[in-house]
Amino acid sequence: MFIYHFQDQLDNIESKVPFLGNKGVNLIKMKAMGIPVPDCFVIDSRLCGIYLKDSSSISIEILDSIKSAIKKIELSSGLKFGSPEKPLLFSVRSGSQISMPGMMDTVLNLGMNDKIADGLAKYTNNKRFALDTYRRFLQMYGNVIKNIPHYIFDNILHNIKHKAGVVLDSSLDIESLMLVISKFKNAIYNNTGNKIPEDVYEQLTEAIKAVFKSWNNARAIKYREIKNIPDNIYTAITIQMMVYGNINNNSATGVLFSRNPATGEKSIFGEYLLNAQGEDVVAGTRDTIPITSSSNDRKNTLEYVMPNVFSQLKQITNKLEAYYKDMQDIEFTIQDGKLYILQTRSGKRSINAAIKIAVDMVMEGLINKTKALTSIEPKDLDSILHPVLDQKVKKNVLCTGLAASPGAACGKIALSSKNISNPNENYILVRKETSPEDIEGMNIACGILTTRGGVTSHAAVVTRGMGKPCVCGASSIIINQSEKYLSIGELKIKEGDTITIDGSTGEIMLDAIKMVQPQLSENFFILLQWAKENSQLKVYANADSAHDISVALKMGADGIGLCRTEHMFFASDRIPYLRQAIIAKEESLQKLANAKILSIQKEDFCKMFKAANGKPLNIRLLDPPLHEFMPKDQEGIDNLAVLCNESVQKINIKIDALQESNPMLGNRGCRLGILNPSIYITQINAIFEAAIIVYKEGISINPGIMIPLISTEHEVLTILAYINEAHANIKNKYGIDIKHRIGVMIELPRAALKASKIAPLVDFFSFGTNDLTQTVYGFSRDDTAETVKKYLEFNIMDFNPFIKLDEDGVGALITMAAENGWLTNHNLEVGICGEHGGNSETIEFLIKNRMHYTSCSPYRIPIMIISTAVKILKKNW
Ligand code: PEP
Ligand code: MG
């Protein structure tokens, strides 16, 4: 019970992973495969649980089982634990069912005292090796078992090496090593008041307890928290006979990956050290040497130095990879020319390597597509879709805002879009908040930083669509527009100085930080295609231009779920006409503006229908919060006065009259179309006219017209009347009946509550979860970022509901509205298009609630497609 010897016959070994850990089970499997593995036994992880909970001692029965397991090793090895004549030493290693590399403790070379060290010297006829092994044990005993800080041993070693005039531990001679040993012993005595136990079983018991306790050290607890690993699975312990890579120059130790963990290339990748033990490779105390290399500098590689061992290692690597059907991370030791494998496990890899390995292994017939897809961590894909900061570079974070649009960017600070002048420069546009007037600057800038606003603010929504990094609501930054600088606490940063922003973390840093640029390989698209074959949820794009549609389709989109037409008026040569249509009093001027809007939109929609090429294209009628669209600067106001044939003073009065206390709850969405029908009618005509043109060219079209911000069925009926009339007119004029779908945005609670009445009037519901979150909570999406931040700090909220869908509240309303909608319209298509549509955490909710689609910015699409497939294949809900 609780102790498994490696020669024990274990049925159904896979099911023992929770008790023996991956390391233990893999050693047993390797032994069964005939791979040279040093003899070992494993202590069950349940014992760790019992030890940590109930007692601080290990029972006599367990100790007896440990002794009989050791006996077996003694018999097969011809060595004896505690014997100076034929010394047997052990490694004591942690190993849970989920790999936690480097988080817990290990004790090596256990079973030493002065006599055994002498005996080891005689037995191996190698005093230097025996002393080197002894000092390693003392160091680990002191540090791991007695918690004496590392630096105390490091300093002793450093001083003695310095005195001896050597750089490497391996260059220390016998006298120096003896000095190290005596100083290490003193350090242990001085720090604990005790000498190390002479009795090797006592040493072993102490080591077992220390490794069990390391389950609860601070770094292991943190790691489990980050990786969502339960605390109650505990660690097993593998006790393995030592083999020595530090015995002579025909000995070595190393770590290898069966494929390159950075690129995924199918070739052994790893490093080793001659005359060393495993910690030397990981500790970085010596410069490691590549195991194999294609460069000229091959002379020191293992392949060159020990060709026979290398070819054996290569064979074993291939065998292990074929068995585990995954890239392996293998630790090995060569003791006087004989190879031993100490450990194999699935290797950690970069996302690019993960994609290449997954696709290659399917092509090699090693794994199927399901295994390939589930080997990918979808959230890691962000780093290949956007530039990211080079992890190797140290960063000095000045402050943090909200991570609003992923990716990193660096550039000169521009405090206004007008100051973005040099097309060859990189700029970060820094604004309190952005408005359509900033759009040209946003278009040229490589990143956006705002000091106000949340993750569904204008800046966030627009940059996500553009695929540009954005940090929002960085409230510790104060912008001084007149004197042209930013201040963060005491620090002043001038306009024109360079900063870096990371839209994936919300961090802001001074100067330019090195980045890694995105790259999408052919393998990425192969994997994407496999994911699409396994996904039942359609993934649409939020796209406002033909270019965005093309990007979205390339990224795997099934169609366009949301085209925000107000975004199509952002450009400075367009926005005046929208303003003119809203403000002009004279009918003739309004007509002029609408004629211009008709021609602009017709051209846009033609291009977009062509780009969509028969895929659904849901065009939303104008939904501008009016405050965002009115000019703020004098030049804009003067221009508008000319266009409307009014005095500047009158224009100012009209703009003032349009100011609302709560613009996000004001004259937005269909309310604008009802109070000012000509703009909506113009847009509807533009959609039908464009559809006719493209249809006549023989290109398939699938138009959807979407009505925003509805709250009553009467609003829907009013806009439907415009659509039906325009449709009938076009049919009469061209003799062509343009098939179209009509949808409504359900983004106000009343619309959700009246779903059964609204559903029969339309073909689809698109839940606008940004506005729905705003209105269900009564939190303004533009103003309450600070409150939400504080609520998170105070634990009043567990998450930001503008980022992660509030399934209990907002989600409950969505479920109810969808169910009620289907009661009265069985064919109703239902999906979401708010920012939650691009968050993979929403997928489970969507599938469970039988939603047909999600819609998100083009650069989130691959993540949503792959996440959906992975979740469905893993069935992890
Ligand atoms: C929404 O409210 O979720 C939505 C998609 O519309 P917008 O963000 O444009 O208001
Ligand atoms: Mg909305």
UniProtKB/TrEMBL annotation:
PANTHER family: PHOSPHOENOLPYRUVATE DIKINASE-RELATED (PTHR22931), PYRUVATE, PHOSPHATE DIKINASE 1, CHLOROPLASTIC (PTHR22931:SF9). Belongs to the PEP-utilizing enzyme family. Residues 59-288, 310-364 form the Pyruvate phosphate dikinase AMP/ATP-binding domain. It comes from Candidatus Xenohaliotis californiensis. Keywords: ATP-binding, Kinase, Magnesium, Metal-binding, Nucleotide-binding, Phosphoprotein, Pyruvate, Transferase. Its cofactor is Mg(2+). Residues 424-506 form the PEP-utilising enzyme mobile domain. This is Pyruvate, phosphate dikinase. Homodimer. InterPro entries: ATP_grasp_subdomain_1 (IPR013815), PEP-util_enz_mobile_dom (IPR008279), PEP_util_AS (IPR018274), PEP_util_C (IPR000121), PEP_util_CS (IPR023151), Phosphohistidine_dom_sf (IPR036637), PPDK_AMP/ATP-bd (IPR002192), Pyruvate_phosphate_dikinase (IPR010121). One of its GO terms (molecular function) is pyruvate, phosphate dikinase activity. Its EC number is 2.7.9.1.
